[in-house]
Amino acid sequence: MPREIKESDWKLLRQLHPVALERFSQRILSEIGSINADSAKSFHQRYLDIFKVVECRDREMAQLFNDLRRSTALTQIALIQSRGLLTEDELLRFSKEALGIVEVLLNGRQDDGK
Protein backbone atom coordinates (compact mmCIF):
# COMPACT_ATOMS: atom_id res chain seq x y z
CA MET A 1 0.00 0.00 0.00
CA PRO A 2 2.02 2.97 -1.27
CA ARG A 3 0.39 5.62 0.90
CA GLU A 4 2.63 8.30 2.38
CA ILE A 5 2.45 8.66 6.14
CA LYS A 6 1.52 12.08 7.49
CA GLU A 7 4.27 13.98 9.28
CA SER A 8 2.35 13.95 12.58
CA ASP A 9 1.89 10.17 12.36
CA TRP A 10 5.57 9.69 11.49
CA LYS A 11 6.65 11.73 14.52
CA LEU A 12 4.26 9.78 16.75
CA LEU A 13 5.55 6.45 15.44
CA ARG A 14 9.13 7.50 16.10
CA GLN A 15 8.07 8.39 19.66
CA LEU A 16 6.16 5.13 20.27
CA HIS A 17 8.61 2.82 18.50
CA PRO A 18 11.03 2.55 21.45
CA VAL A 19 8.09 2.14 23.86
CA ALA A 20 6.77 -0.82 21.87
CA LEU A 21 10.29 -2.25 21.61
CA GLU A 22 10.64 -2.14 25.40
CA ARG A 23 7.29 -3.89 25.84
CA PHE A 24 8.26 -6.58 23.37
CA SER A 25 11.64 -7.04 25.07
CA GLN A 26 9.90 -7.34 28.44
CA ARG A 27 7.63 -10.09 27.06
CA ILE A 28 10.60 -12.00 25.73
CA LEU A 29 12.49 -11.76 29.02
CA SER A 30 9.38 -12.87 30.90
CA GLU A 31 9.02 -15.85 28.56
CA ILE A 32 12.68 -16.74 29.11
CA GLY A 33 12.25 -16.35 32.87
CA SER A 34 9.34 -18.80 32.85
CA ILE A 35 11.36 -21.32 30.90
CA ASN A 36 14.33 -20.92 33.24
CA ALA A 37 12.13 -21.34 36.31
CA ASP A 38 10.84 -24.75 35.15
CA SER A 39 12.86 -26.97 37.47
CA ALA A 40 11.14 -30.08 36.06
CA LYS A 41 13.44 -29.74 33.05
CA SER A 42 17.19 -30.19 33.04
CA PHE A 43 19.44 -27.17 32.76
CA HIS A 44 20.40 -28.26 29.29
CA GLN A 45 16.78 -28.61 28.15
CA ARG A 46 15.99 -25.17 29.56
CA TYR A 47 18.99 -23.78 27.70
CA LEU A 48 17.78 -25.37 24.44
CA ASP A 49 14.26 -24.04 24.98
CA ILE A 50 15.59 -20.55 25.72
CA PHE A 51 17.81 -20.68 22.64
CA LYS A 52 14.77 -21.53 20.48
CA VAL A 53 12.80 -18.66 21.96
CA VAL A 54 15.63 -16.20 21.41
CA GLU A 55 16.07 -17.31 17.79
CA CYS A 56 12.36 -17.01 17.05
CA ARG A 57 11.82 -13.74 18.90
CA ASP A 58 14.93 -12.21 17.34
CA ARG A 59 13.45 -12.75 13.87
CA GLU A 60 10.13 -11.36 15.04
CA MET A 61 11.83 -8.35 16.65
CA ALA A 62 13.70 -7.61 13.44
CA GLN A 63 10.46 -7.71 11.43
CA LEU A 64 8.72 -5.41 13.88
CA PHE A 65 11.42 -2.89 14.70
CA ASN A 66 14.35 -2.90 12.28
CA ASP A 67 14.71 -0.52 9.35
CA LEU A 68 12.04 1.99 10.33
CA ARG A 69 11.30 4.08 7.24
CA ARG A 70 8.53 6.40 6.17
CA SER A 71 7.77 4.14 3.21
CA THR A 72 7.03 1.20 5.51
CA ALA A 73 5.76 3.09 8.56
CA LEU A 74 2.08 2.19 8.19
CA THR A 75 2.95 -1.47 7.82
CA GLN A 76 5.21 -1.20 10.90
CA ILE A 77 2.33 0.29 12.91
CA ALA A 78 0.09 -2.58 11.83
CA LEU A 79 2.72 -5.19 12.71
CA ILE A 80 3.40 -3.63 16.09
CA GLN A 81 -0.32 -3.39 16.80
CA SER A 82 -0.88 -7.00 15.69
CA ARG A 83 1.28 -8.01 18.66
CA GLY A 84 -0.68 -5.78 21.05
CA LEU A 85 2.32 -3.57 21.77
CA LEU A 86 0.44 -0.27 21.70
CA THR A 87 -2.25 0.70 24.14
CA GLU A 88 -5.61 1.79 22.77
CA ASP A 89 -4.85 5.38 23.83
CA GLU A 90 -1.51 5.31 22.02
CA LEU A 91 -3.05 3.86 18.88
CA LEU A 92 -5.86 6.42 18.85
CA ARG A 93 -3.29 9.23 18.74
CA PHE A 94 -2.65 8.36 15.07
CA SER A 95 -4.72 10.09 12.41
CA LYS A 96 -7.97 8.57 11.15
CA GLU A 97 -6.30 8.02 7.78
CA ALA A 98 -3.43 6.06 9.34
CA LEU A 99 -5.80 4.03 11.50
CA GLY A 100 -7.91 3.18 8.47
CA ILE A 101 -4.89 1.84 6.60
CA VAL A 102 -3.67 -0.04 9.69
CA GLU A 103 -7.10 -1.64 10.04
CA VAL A 104 -7.07 -2.75 6.40
CA LEU A 105 -3.57 -4.18 6.84
CA LEU A 106 -4.54 -6.01 10.02
CA ASN A 107 -7.71 -7.45 8.53
CA GLY A 108 -5.82 -8.54 5.44
CA ARG A 109 -3.20 -10.28 7.57
CA GLN A 110 -5.89 -12.02 9.60
CA ASP A 111 -7.60 -13.22 6.40
CA ASP A 112 -4.26 -14.52 5.06
CA GLY A 113 -3.92 -16.73 8.12
CA LYS A 114 -7.24 -18.53 7.55
Main attributes of the structure:
disordered C terminus; 114 residues; 5 helices; mainly alpha; single chain
User: What count of domains describes the coordinates?
Assistant: 1
Strand % is under 5%
Cα(first) to Cα(last) distance is: 21 Å
Write down the Rg. 17 Å
List unreliable stretches of 5+ residues.
110-114
The tally of helices reads 5
What would the principal axes of the Cα set say about the shape?
A: elongated
User: How does the major sheet shape up?
Assistant: none
Which sequence of SSEs, written as H and E, runs from N to C? HHHHH
The level of helicity is: over 70%
Count the strands? 0
Class from helix and strand fractions: mainly alpha
Q: Could you report the average pLDDT, rounded to the nearest whole number?
A: 92
List the helices and strands and how they pair.
Blueprint: H1 7-36, H2 43-65, H3 73-82, H4 88-91, H5 96-112
Helix pairs in contact: 1-2, 3-5
What does this structure look like?
By secondary structure, the chain is mainly α. It has one domain (7-112). Helices cover 74% and strands 0% of the residues. The protein contains five helices and no strands. It is elongated, with a radius of gyration of 17 Å.
